[in-house]
Amino acid sequence: MHGPTSPGWLLVALCAATGAYCLLRMRSSVEEQRRAAGGEALMGFGMAAMAVPGEAFSPPAWTWPLYAAVFGAAALRALWAARGSPHHLHHLVGSAAMVYMAVAMSASPASPGSPGSHHAHGGTGVPLLTGVLLLYFTGYVLIGGVRLVPAPAAAGPRTVRWGDRPELARACRLSMGIAMVAMLLTL
Q1: What is the pTM of this model?
Q2: What is the pLDDT of residues 74-105, one digit of tens each?
Q3: Which of 15, 34, 116, 162 is most deeply packed, by most CB within 10 A?
Q4: Residue pair 25/33 in contact by the 8 Å Cβ criterion
Q5: Going by C-beta distance under 8 Å and a sequence separation of 6 or more, which residues neighbour residue 64?
Q6: CA angle, 63 as apex, 100 and 5 as ends, to 5°?
Q7: Distance of alpha carbon 177 from alpha carbon 163, whole angstroms
């Protein structure tokens, strides 16, 4: 690695590609899958925007409170949806983590052009909360990686649309979990 710029752009590409695939998943015929994919697309694109290296673009000061408001609303929606599906609890934690990172970024502006000035502020977060979130997302990534191990094939081939492929949805969630760990490590 040659500084934070290259990993930052890789993180942007990973999160944007994940968000794009989640948009594709929104075309599913299963309503619950469409709803979950919408939240995951928002998370992917939000993480991509948050990961843009500071050398390329320094957002105005109002950006971080806007992020906090958008992801705060997403957290409330996930809390409401969690009544019917425990999967939405993960969306709640992810949205809350995005609110936390936005608040941490707005609390400590870095000088423009400094390494990682847009996304790594070094020590701006609450260490205990950052640690808890890191533990959660690290566990999520490890469990998600195990879930990607293929199961024995069912009898007969079946045609599945790209938006309905469960292994791609799991890979999508896994990549966002990895990106979340990377972003939390910078706080």
Answers
A1: 0.82
A2: 999 999 988 887 878 999 999 999 999 999 98
A3: 15
A4: yes
A5: 102, 103, 105, 106
A6: 80
A7: 20
